[in-house]
Amino acid sequence: MDFHLLGPLEVLHQSRAVSIGGPRAGTVLALLALRANRVVTVERLITDLWDRTPQTARQQVVSQVSALRRVLDDVIVTRSAGYMLQVAEDQVDLAVFDGHVRTAQRMVAANEKALALEYLNRALSLWRGPALDGLSRLTTHRRHLDERRLLVMKQRISLKMELGRNTEVVPELAVLAASHPFDEQLHGKLMMALSRCGRRVDAIEAYRKFRTSLVEEHGIDPSVDLQQLNHAILLGGESLVAVGGDDQRHLRGSQ
Predict the structure, then answer these.
(1) Domain 2-89 - what CATH class?
(2) What are the tens digits of pLDDT across the range 90-109?
(3) Share of the chain above pLDDT 70, in %
(4) What is the pLDDT of residues 129-176, one digit of tens each?
(5) Is the dihedral angle over the CA atoms 223, 228, 233, 239 positive or is it negative?
(6) How far apart are CA 105 and CA 103, in angstroms?
(7) What is the pTM of this model?
(8) What are the distances in angstroms from CA 100 to CA 87, 103, 236?
(9) Is the pLDDT of residue 237 over 90?
């Protein structure tokens, strides 16, 4: 049985979808799958399920878990403080994602950038849309997972740029920069990629648009690093370094 969190919640048994009930049952299962093989206390489940705790909250949690057990065999076990989803690591797509990212970290440390890129591709291929899509009670968890996805996407872009694949990353960077209009790191990478594939005018225009949006929306200028990058591009500098933080450092030390 496989549990998919990186998109709408999905449970598969022998490649066939398993019906797990309504949104509340899905929320309980997602919370257990997010901490697979670790105990999730009943109190934690209650906190995530309700803003105002009903008197019957504990009984409702017990009822939801019982209903899930009827369709999920023996994967949910009871512990003194709560419940645990007891599964192999490769049964939860989030755990598989994390495993691929950890492998990529090791490949970067060994200076095997092409292999690291392959594992980041595998990690990102697991995503089917926004994490936990449709489970409105799990907004914070969803945002955290989507931030992790974006970090890995940035890491993959950096590796591609280090491997000289600048033209390839421009379309991806353009989409990401448009959807994250105030992410300076993304806009800096877009400027570098454009400049490195001979589109210096477009790189300068990308900076101008970013700066204008930042000033109009937040009343601040881009960082000194980004200003220096723009200046280097204006001068036609050949040596352009990363802006907005070294996300390869995160690749080596995150998770």
Answers:
(1) mainly alpha
(2) 999 999 999 999 999 999 99
(3) 93
(4) 999 999 999 999 999 999 999 999 999 999 999 999 999 999 999 999
(5) negative
(6) 5
(7) 0.88
(8) 18, 5, 38
(9) no
Residue with tokens 């990478």: 189
Question: 78: helix, coil or strand?
Answer: strand
- What residue spans define the domains of the chain? 2-89, 164-248
Paired with 85 in beta bridges are 76
Residues comprising the chain, all counted: 255
Domain 164-248 sits in CATH at: 1.25.40.10
Q: Can you give the pLDDT at residue 246?
A: 45
Token pair in block for residue 61 = 């949690």
Q: Which of 186, 192, 138 has its CA nearest to residue 164?
A: 192
Can you give the C-alpha Rg of the chain in angstroms?
22
Residue 253: per-residue pLDDT: 36
Give the residue from 128, 135, 134, 133 showing the smallest Cα distance to 93. Answer: 128
The tokens for 211 are 């700066």
CA pair distance 169, 155, nearest whole angstrom: 12
Residue 83: its H or E element: strand 82-85
Residue 255 pLDDT greater than 60, yes or no: no
Tell me 223's DSSP state. Answer: P
Q: CA 1, 38, 105: angle at the middle one, nearest 5?
A: 85
Q: Report how far apart the first and last C-alpha atoms of the chain are (Å, whole number).
A: 25
What residues contact 216, with CB distance under 8 A and at least 6 apart? none
